[in-house]
Design goal:
alpha/beta, about 350 residues, 6-stranded parallel beta sheet, globular, 8-stranded mixed beta sheet, 11 helices, Rossmann fold
Length: about 350
């Protein structure tokens, strides 16, 4: 079988990992890597045993597929160039900066009958893959995605940088549509929003509370789901899945608390988890989601199989993200539109939290 000729466009922090993995896949020939920074492109090319380019258009005619890992503002123009040339693409998330741009790529890929996959990598996290094998009807979800400030992805805010991961996961788990969105957030460093909380009300009755922050001291990425079937919790960092389900006796009879004497009530707390609430801890720390994602893309290009995360999926997540941004910008900090609004306007502080107020002696 002939190797699939590929290139990586943009080999910065994440793109260099795309190049490293693709260079190691036996059925891929990494023809080249592209970066506007020639020294960066040359360093990664030497490391991966391939050629360095500064113009992505130089690869047209030389490759069968491309992985696009440039800043978000360039996703549309780069992906469109390759799709117009009949070349399938994997585009890192978010698919584009605007909904109109995303619609354009989706339409173009459809008309050209080309693979367009979006890099929502958490869909390939082994813990999430394990969760999707389980029967589950989510009715309340909490998603948290916190991380330290890295200085990267400064062309977008926390919604398109971080929260969009969880918005895509929610749409995958719950479906849609979303009836209403409320959001609040703040710009900490003076650019786009850095901390955001959103509440999503789905038409099917599910409620989701989603938080993203890129000013946290330690990374935290977790998803918690409550459903009629029980509870599921994912730690994306540790790749662990926790499942809790009521025992058959609990579903049938309940605890009948009013019938218990004092001694029975005292021991009940030790019997809740394990006896009445059955718990299963799964260590899903096997495989690498980026490698799995790239292998999946290669397979889809070769076979014509539908990607797990299609252009339409990327468009849906982006559309929901922009609804969050709209709600965020309309948030009234003091409950009326005559006061500060949105992430860039905050109420004036009434003092410094570290300073205790003076109490004059009587």
């Amino acid at each position: 079988m002939r190797q699939l000729r590929m290139a990586v466009i943009g080999v910065g922090h994440l793109g260099k990992e795309h190049a490293r993995i693709l260079a190691g896949l036996p059925d891929v020939d990494l023809v080249g890597v592209v970066d506007v920074n020639l020294s960066q492109a040359e360093m990664i090319a030497q490391r991966c045993g391939t050629k360095a380019f500064t113009k992505y258009t130089d690869l047209i005619g030389q490759i069968d597929a491309a992985s696009i890992v440039v800043p978000t503002v360039y996703h549309h123009v780069v992906a469109k160039t390759f799709l117009q040339a009949g070349i399938p693409v994997l585009v890192e998330k978010p698919i584009t900066a605007t909904v109109t741009e995303a619609e354009d790529l989706v339409d173009l890929a459809c008309r050209q009958n080309l693979t367009l996959q979006v890099g929502h990598i958490e869909r390939f996290n082994p813990a999430f893959e394990e969760l999707q094998l389980r029967p589950l009807q989510p009715k309340f979800i909490e998603a948290e995605r916190h991380g330290p400030f890295t200085g990267r992805s400064t062309d977008i805010g926390a919604v398109l940088d971080l929260m969009i991961h969880d918005l895509d996961l929610l749409l995958s788990l719950v479906g849609g549509p979303v009836r209403s969105v409320e959001a609040v957030g703040a710009s900490v460093f003076g650019g786009d929003e850095d901390v955001v909380n959103a509440r999503l009300d789905f038409v099917n009755g599910c409620i989701a509370n989603v938080t993203a922050s890129r000013v946290s001291p330690k990374p935290k990425r977790r998803l918690r789901v409550w459903a009629p079937e029980g509870y599921a919790g994912i730690d994306f960092v540790q790749r662990r899945l926790t499942l809790v389900q009521p025992s058959e006796m609990l579903r049938r009879d309940g605890l009948r608390l009013k019938e218990l004497d004092a001694a029975q009530r005292a021991t009940l707390k030790d019997q809740i988890f394990g006896t009445h609430l059955e718990t299963l801890e799964l260590d899903c720390n096997h495989g690498d989601q980026l490698t799995n994602e790239l292998r999946h893309f290669v397979e889809c290009v070769r076979t014509g199989r539908r990607p797990r995360v299609t252009g339409q999926d990327g468009l849906a997540a982006l559309s929901l993200a922009h609804r969050v941004l709209a709600a965020l910008n309309q948030h009234m900090w003091e409950g009326h539109d005559q006061g500060p609004m949105g992430p860039h306007q905050m109420p004036m502080p009434i003092g410094r939290m570290f300073d205790l107020p003076r109490v004059d002696a009587a």
